[in-house]
Predict the 3D structure of the following.
Amino acid sequence: MPLLRPSPQCLRLPQRPSPGHPIQPITAVASTKSLTSTPHRTLASSSHPPDAAEHSAPHESHYDPPSGWLFGVPPGQKYQKEGWENTWVYGFWGSLLFGVVAYAYKPDTSIQTWALEEARRRLEAEGILEDPSPEAGKK
């Protein structure tokens, strides 16, 4: 299919009005013929449309008809795992557990915590607030 290009009229930029003229609204000018008409391709060797040849390649169907069994395993048979299943399960749950533990032990870097600690340190330095450490009471 050929690439559709807009007509040159669509690409025309509006001219800036001079200081004495009122501003005109911008109107879109489009030629419907240039956007809707496409050249027709004809193939002398085939009576089929060009797209039909692309879709008629001999492929097997990817559809598995329903068997009526859960996961396609009849009762009495044991499900045989594929090689990637254990890796995926242990990798998924292991990385999830690692993420939860890392999130639980991440340092507190919020601005509120820093401001509270900085205010407490400054008040202790000025003598307004007593030092909460147990060694300060023993001295």
